[in-house]
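Quick one - inputs below.
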Amino acid sequence: MSDDYMHKEYPKRFDRTSFWEQIKRTVNGKPVSEQDINMIVDQIKRSLKPRSSDNLLDLGCGNAALASYLFDCVDGYYGVDFSEYLIGVAREFFSNQQSTHYYCDDIVSFSNSFLNPEVIDKILIYGVISYLSKQEVEQLITTISERFCSCRRVFIGNVPSREYADAFFKRRAVEDYQLDDPKSAIGVWWTPEEFEEIGGCRGFDVEILTMPESFYGTGYRFDVLMTRSARGCD
Ligand SMILES: C[S@@+](CC[C@H](N)C(=O)[O-])C[C@H]1O[C@@H](n2cnc3c(N)ncnc32)[C@H](O)[C@@H]1O
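Output:
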């Protein structure tokens, strides 16, 4: 499946208000529960510690249905996604003239070219990182470290854990699978140590987090919190 189909065409199969289906936040085709969404939002809030004066950048925001739970906690919200359809849905249903800004772009290119990186205080990357190659992830974290100098916290959520990949596919009787293909359905599977290395080398303290046992994705995914080390941007 090409990423053009998976990310840009697939969401069009659903009604404009079927927000969770559009971004595949489903179990057996049904949207995950409100309880699961709240668990994600709580984990993001605990990690990013959003403040009312913050500008939040959401890389790979999809339709911004998830981010909308954070709008009340921040001053400004910047959402970026390369799916025109999803950005259209975000603009239609999750817009506030004063505080929301949407961009249809690739997140790696956007991070390099965004004209006001210094206004961003926190960055959210949820359910997206596995769709970048390892090289692109290194490039993105380098760019965040070097250009987004006011950004103190980066939350990278829902990362597929390499340690559990074999068990995941075995349970589903899948024998032929790729763990390093960003164009596959789940994308690239990572180890926590790889993020510790990538963030640590770029001036971040890295914390690996997991979700509560009752969360639908528990067991084969983890989250990463990168906090700017006291040293900051040199
Ligand atoms: C599973 S959805 C997650 C959306 C949102 N972050 C959330 O958690 O609700 C993954 C999103 O990443 C976007 N995406 C994947 N690769 C991207 C890239 N290189 N640049 C921009 N968006 C990308 C897709 O279009 C899709 O909307």
